[in-house]
């Protein structure tokens, strides 16, 4: 028997597991400082054991459950991105992703709720689950629930909290977020620096010991039709004195929250990063003929450190820096002047990276010290990234840039001038053939 349930609060996962479902995670941001846009991050989720899913069934679910209109189904099939099969703490994983933007309509209850807090994600779930041995439909109300990211299905993935049944009891919370910064230089080929911020709240308090931290993280970067990453050259490599001859692709460093809180100088520090895309990224297509992608960065780091005046209750931050080059595709020709900036420029939106998974292990290296601690990323959206209670997680806003676009009305003039120049050039080459020297 199937019975619908209306959820106005976060579900308990004690007796329910996912069969299939989709989530519409919305984010409000401002274009040019005035126009509010809503980005719908549509994700089809799957369970490792109970379900396989393909793009057709994902788009069909999005349509049948009201996340897209009928005339958007073909767009979904042509543009939906495959999310790589990534490791997760649980069995529920994102399978497909699609971003769709819409203008704000103030007559919507859902939009009014979103406008109250533009700094967070609001997730609306429509799921098929099994609870107490029966199949049920779980549906959020118009308010939805706070979400850590579009790729975390709230209520069905471990949160890293102490009272979460899916979180290992011996672990400590690891607070973190990923942020990107786009260079103003480079034209259509710009460097996109990304930083993973990780905050540790409960460190060991033995200031005479030496510790080793090993960390693993997974970052997802959604790429819309307007940009692409060259998979043959996906990471920016730095070459500086004293580094490896192969260069450095990522750097890990501690950042103190107070002066002289700890000492890490002259100790070992290693950072590695790998890029993965589950689909071949077409670098030749213009934006209007391209599709969306979700690329993955796998990060691993190992750091040895010693504490000086640090107290165990004091937080400190670990930063991991790396970068990639974003190549901007040629945008669609402009049909009219609506939304066009001065100089014939059109705005495009670049999405921020998402810290999907992170865990750390700290082990004491000093003799007669057997301390070990495990840390798991906290994905509960009710608190800030660095542990400030009663404050929602402030998500970094998407990045807006303006790029040049052709005017559709100039198509025939451009075509005529181009063809004329080609013909004149061809005639000039043919006439110049007689003057070419011939070898005897």
Descriptive report:
The strands form three sheets. Strands 9, 10, 11, 12, 13, 14, 15, 16, 17, 19 and 20 form an eleven-stranded mixed sheet that branches. This protein has 440 residues and is mostly beta strands. The chain has helices at residues 55-64, 73-79, 109-115, 411-431; strands spanning 3-7, 16-31, 35-47, 81-82, 92-103, 121-131, 134-140, 145-147, 171-182, 189-200, 210-223, 227-228, 250-255, 262-263, 269-277, 293-307, 316-328, 345-350, 354-364, 372-377, 399-404. Mean pLDDT is 78; it is low at 1-14 and 384-391. Strand 19 (354-364) and strand 20 (372-377) form a beta hairpin. It is built from four helices and 21 strands. Helices cover 10% and strands 42% of the residues.
What's the tally of helices? 4
Backbone structural class: mainly beta
Rounded Rg: 26 Å
List the uncertain runs: 1-14, 384-391
Biggest sheet architecture: 11 strands, mixed
Average the pLDDT over all residues and give the rounded result.
Answer: 78
Strand content: 35-45%
The number of distinct β-strands equals 21
Shape: globular
Topology order in helix (H) and strand (E) letters: EEEHHEEHEEEEEEEEEEEEEEEEH
Q: State the helicity in percent bands.
A: 10-25%
